């Protein structure tokens, strides 16, 4: 069976997903919709797809699945529409910045028994997957302490920051999901977060933070540290380390060029990837491939809408912790 | 301008090049030829190309360039035909296993002023390119000593070995070209080679070697060591180290998964790539992109047919060195 | 001038310091005292020193400095005695487990204008010193976030745990001092600690924890994460990473043997040092050398008694944070 | 039993060995001899030894072993004298620069049944020992190809070069011995060497080379590559890699400080050790400890005088290979 896709939103990340669909022998990009018809037209031409409206896609018999890459504030509505229309749905994170809206949306997904995957692409990074596999294989024993380091090469534009929901909902949310993934779903008991404006005062003026540290503690006392900064001069710093009773597993940083030059000044290797799209190029491809495979096999979809909701709850708790100076108890 | 391509030979490496052409916005795959029509048909369908005969491609007005991925013994004839037909030509290495045949072919290329690129893909590997760039940037001063390590995960099938021309012409030839690339064309003065059968006696029975060490010395006394083995249990071992007057530049091995697991037994990282096609996936894409760019810009093509010939001369000299137990003087 | 030393306490760590004194051309070990005369005698013989009582050492005219390696509960008393006797004092950490006792002791040191160095040996580790130097040289800009990982190969004997003052005062205290060292003394505003018993329930039964995470926040919002475990199967895990506005500096783990073995299973390096005395062998030597140099030059001694007190305050705050579930505000 | 030592030659390397003897509980430095009495006196004072003449040492009943660190041209004579005097002998390499003289000396050692260790200190480097152990443990299967890289930070003084016997007898000789050590004594069938003056023309004017590559081939076809340069701006470059049927074992370079600083320019680690005495500090200590242990246990001493002779034969063959442009057949 070929899974026929419609792409909603013909922007930067839409291009990544369109390519993943286009190169998958089990899938076909049939339709593209965008508020800017020219953008949609460009994609459609490249992949032999049609430009259609969202209404047309909703009503189409020849479309099995949609990929939602539209602005965040449209996600929840679109998920609900396409859940009711019986389409499988891949939606970029977040479902919504408001937890109540997310819950309502997830309820619709459950009622309609819709297939929904939320775009936590890092679960599909081959290196992070290998860390998870090392855990699952028992190589490091029982997981006890996790350290997740996630630093951007530089801050996003200020206008993005102001509508991002803040660093915890925009950036740390990936790490919250990663923590949950690595902990195999064990409940988080408390969230303790520290945040500061160390990179750019304008970020503070916009009501956000740029440097945060979060500790999650599970109900059995396992500890997760997340360290985020909006600036890392040396590139896109993305590391995971899991310490267990029998050992430790870690995913190292990735660089596009791995040479080493030795001189009297020392040994130098080039900086890391400087952009999340090149760093996670394999993750994005694996993600859509996983979505297609799950549609075909009928397997449970992961990360699910509920995973999206639970990560957002942690983000909200972290923000509350910073604002109140208190540890937030969740369970 | 769009460069229209015909692919000759719809096998494994043909698929790699077809993909590179297909995903290049400046190029289009127009025709595919193969002795097995079904193979050609499969490629043609995927890329919206037509199945044509070689005669048709030779005569076609809508085709600017050909990619030759047919068996080795057809390369030289095809290069000559398409040189005379005025097509730009990309040909997988080697041009031929016989140096006289190669020279005759290169003569035709010169007479017809044809554009010919020979598929020494490693020149396009981003890591090796970065080593070359470090040299060109003067970071390590004057190049003095080069070490090239190249080991396959395991030997090829015996029937391949018997028609490969032997390890020097089949495997080491890449390293000879790499040496020439890194030396910026300085003439090789002598070749001294040692060869043994250490991996599999059947390789020796087939008249070939599986473990070789070669020293090239340039006219100014610079030294290159090439170390080859047909077996490396830990994966596809491909390293370059260049030692110069101001320092050293090296390209490290590549692995698909870069995690590290620490236990009481130590720190373990996964093996390297186990296949040249995954190891050099970027090199293959860069190679065809470079070919297309050179066609469009009219730039000199590199590696050229002459590069192919000179590498083969080194391979022949290495074999003669092993057979005679003598250093072969070239310049 | 030669600095004449007396060693108080001829145990394991005393041996390390005696050797440092013995091999320093500016110092001489003159006397050794121990509750067990045989132990003192063995040291004395090896270094050409005399066995003396503490009273004799206190009264001796030929002794300029003492090294206190006796049990923790004798430290404060001995510091006070030798401060009053006008000797320079090196004392193993901690000064005392009780902060009030430490303060009283430090007061005596101040009154008597005594020279006191507290044995935070890690400040003298060449790798950690190089990280500090990179900061001081401005290579990474303004320090923003620090991550200190410190894990023991295995827990100490249970009877040691019961008199250790608990993990924060015994183990984390080194990391508190390291944080202060790397922050160049900027005041800590808050301490937030999480602790669990994940390694051995017997440690919990003894009233202690074995796995802790601490966040320190400075008055300007800089963040320090300390991660401790009493068990690391792969060796003595001691890492520091400092993230700044211009880059990052990190000290890697040390292993006694640095080979790599590559097989079909992957690339394996041996485990880390399995004992703090081999891991920090250079730090111990540098520490005593620094003490001798400071005595000779009259320079300020660092780490000082006050450094010892401030690290203990952080340990006490961490323990209070765990017990109350609250962030402890210090400034 | 305590082994009583006399040290002949109170220079730089003598100091290293005196320290090794002095800190070994099973050994005692009893006498020191040197052409410059002041030098001998300084050592004697430090270790509680006496200054004696060589004649006195030869006749002494209280001396069991001598360490010969005098100039090279005295080695063979001293070995013979002390062999006849019944002392165990540790002699710095080389026994002599002339192979006939070495053979004669070794004959005397055999006749007198003397214990003689030749100072190939690298056999005692813990990292190289671990590579050997990995081989002996069967972890990499049958050894097939060995690569030894050995580069000095900079050339020695010209007057040293002129009396060194040349780079093969002075520098490469360590690598010849290492090759023999790793090959477990398998006979070398041929030596093929290339040499050039790339670092400093004055070295060439002195009749020597500064950049050499040597291939050794064993009687079963195993291949060893040795790469030497008299200059490596990045430090003392000392690496070994052994490729076998089941995998590969390699010893990495050593650096005194192992931090990494990441900035926009990349990731930089400090240079390597810049001096052989710090790089091989553990090897020198292990070497003397091994000598003492062999004396006490009566075990066979390794590396023996014959090892010294065989390494020199390889050096002579390499030089002949360079001079004749031919491969030198040894077996």
From TrEMBL, chains A, B, C, D:
Q: Which GO terms describe its molecular function?
A: nucleotide binding; oxidoreductase activity
Which Pfam families does the protein's record reference? GFO_IDH_MocA, GFO_IDH_MocA_C3
Domain Gfo/Idh/MocA-like oxidoreductase N-terminal span(s) in chain numbering = 3-120
Q: Which InterPro entries does the UniProt entry name for this protein?
A: Gfo/Idh/MocA-like_OxRdtase_N, GFO_IDH_MocA-like_dom, Myo_inos_IolG, NAD(P)-bd_dom_sf
SUPFAM superfamilies in UniProt: Glyceraldehyde-3-phosphate dehydrogenase-like, C-terminal domain, NAD(P)-binding Rossmann-fold domains
Which Gene3D superfamilies does the record cross-reference, listed alphabetically?
Dihydrodipicolinate Reductase, domain 2, NAD(P)-binding Rossmann-like Domain
Instruction: Cite the GFO/IDH/MocA-like oxidoreductase domain residue spans from the record.
Output: 128-249
What UniProt keywords apply to this chain's record, in alphabetical order?
Oxidoreductase
Record-stated family: Belongs to the Gfo/Idh/MocA family.
Report what the protein is called: Inositol 2-dehydrogenase
Provide the species name.
Answer: Sinorhizobium alkalisoli
């Amino acid at each position: 069976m070929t899974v026929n896709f419609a792409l909603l939103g013909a922007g930067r990340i839409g291009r990544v997903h369109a390519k993943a669909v286009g190169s998958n022998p089990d899938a076909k990009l049939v339709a593209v919709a965008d508020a800017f018809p020219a953008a949609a037209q460009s994609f459609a031409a490249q992949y032999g797809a049609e430009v259609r409206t969202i209404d047309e896609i909703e009503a189409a018999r020849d479309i099995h699945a949609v990929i939602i890459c539209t602005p965040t504030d449209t996600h929840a509505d679109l998920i609900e529409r396409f859940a009711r229309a019986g389409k499988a749905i891949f939606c970029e994170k977040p479902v919504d910045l408001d937890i109540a809206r997310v819950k309502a949306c997830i309820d619709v997904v459950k009622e309609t028994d819709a297939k929904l995957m939320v775009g936590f692409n890092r679960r599909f990074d081959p290196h992070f997957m290998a860390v998870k596999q090392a855990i699952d294989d028992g190589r490091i024993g029982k997981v006890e302490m996790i350290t997740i380091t996630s630093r951007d090469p530089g801050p996003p534009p200020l206008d993005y920051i102001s509508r991002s929901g803040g660093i915890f909902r925009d950036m740390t949310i990936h790490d919250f999901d990663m923590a949950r993934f690595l902990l195999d779903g064990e409940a988080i008991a408390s969230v303790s977060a520290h945040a500061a404006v160390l990179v750019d005062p304008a970020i503070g003026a916009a009501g956000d933070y740029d440097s945060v540290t979060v500790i999650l503690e599970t109900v059995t006392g396992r500890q997760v540290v997340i360290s985020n900064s909006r600036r890392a001069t040396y590139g896109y710093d993305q590391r995971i380390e899991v310490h267990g009773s029998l050992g430790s597993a870690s995913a190292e940083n990735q660089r596009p060029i791995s040479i080493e030059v030795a001189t009297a000044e020392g040994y130098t290797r080039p900086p890391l990837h400087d952009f999340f799209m090149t760093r996670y190029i394999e993750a994005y491809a694996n993600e859509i491939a996983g979505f297609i495979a799950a549609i075909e096999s009928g397997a449970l979809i992961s990360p699910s809408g509920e995973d999206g909701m639970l990560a957002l709850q942690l983000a909200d708790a972290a923000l509350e912790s910073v604002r109140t100076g208190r540890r937030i108890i969740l369970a």
